[in-house]
Amino acid sequence: MLNLLVLALPLLVSLVRMAPAPGQALERAGIVGGKEAPGHKWPWQVSLRCLDQYWKHFCGGSLIHPQWVLTAAHCFGPEKADPLYIRVQLGEQHLYYQDRLLLVSRIIVHPNYYDAVNGADIALLELEDPVNLSSHVQPVTLPPASETFPKGTRCWVTGWGDVHSGWPLPPPYPLKQVRVPIVENSECDMQYHLGLSTGDNIPIVRDDMLCAGSEGHDSCQGDSGGPLVCRVNGTWLQAGVVSWGEGCALPNRPGIYTRVTHYLDWIHQCVPRES
């Protein structure tokens, strides 16, 4: 991972050492320590598919508008940059069993994205046609800009990723969920500095990131881009987008998410507000 800022090089060198294997980025998702989600509990959950012998699940996402999906920028490398080779599946509890794949007309990656560690790990997909909303398919509510999701807030992350590091979700591929506490950014940053040579003055957890998870309860490789949602005053709000982290459910290494409130202006510039 290269960075034009020389000050960031020690951090990036340390973070590369965290990676589970060469070429396998820190990006992650999936569920550790959770359980199968009740049917249709998370009606905004999306499975992103790419054409790889079959339409294979590669990332998660969330429906935020009848024609728009929110996900992570790192899901779209050169081999997944063309919307012709991407499909979206909504309202599915088990992968591949009742697929009704939707066409994508545009992929919009945030212009400041370089890699997940450097932030701006957020992207939008525009569907070719608006979806029909129902009890099984509903958009998630975006938070107000003032919402901070303070330390200890109990939230949920969902996905079809690995159940442990290197241990894929087995058939019948059920959607899984796990409850995770919010970890305050400064505390999360301090934890990520433990065991690294990176100076404390070089931030690892940035302002546009949000941390959540505890030892044994976390997201994991296999479903990046999925939603982290928190119930606030009776409404589910999407606090984060699954982005990156070290390992899965390790001590002192909470999951790191893109903070949605940081990118509300950009989202609203792209996504029309419903009347």
How would you describe this structure in keywords?
single chain; 275 residues; mainly beta; 6-stranded antiparallel beta barrel; disordered N terminus
Sequence of secondary-structure elements: HEEEEEEEEEEHEEEEEH
Q: Percent helix among the residues?
A: under 10%
The total beta strand count reads: 15
Oligomer: single chain
Give the number of helices. 3
Q: Which of globular, elongated, flat, extended, rod-shaped describes the shape?
A: globular
The SS-based structural class is mainly beta
First and last CA, distance: 43 Å
Major sheet characteristics:
6 strands, antiparallel, barrel
Strand order of the largest sheet: 9-10-11-15-14-13
Low-confidence stretches: 1-26
Explain this structure.
This protein is mainly beta. 9% of the residues lie in helices and 33% in strands. The protein is built from three helices and 15 strands. The chain has a six-stranded antiparallel barrel with strand order 9-10-11-15-14-13. Strand 3 and strand 4 form a beta hairpin. The relative contact order is 0.23.
Concise synopsis of the structure shown:
The protein is 9% helix and 33% strand. It contains 3 helices and 15 strands.
Please write out the topology.
Layout: H1 9-18, E1 29-32, E2 35-36, E3 45-52, E4 54-65, E5 68-71, E6 86-90, E7 102-109, E8 123-127, E9 154-159, E10 176-183, H2 185-193, E11 209-212, E12 218-220, E13 227-232, E14 235-244, E15 255-259, H3 264-270
Antiparallel strand pairs: 1-12, 2-10, 3-4, 3-6, 4-5, 5-8, 6-7, 7-8, 9-10, 9-13, 10-11, 11-15, 13-14, 14-15
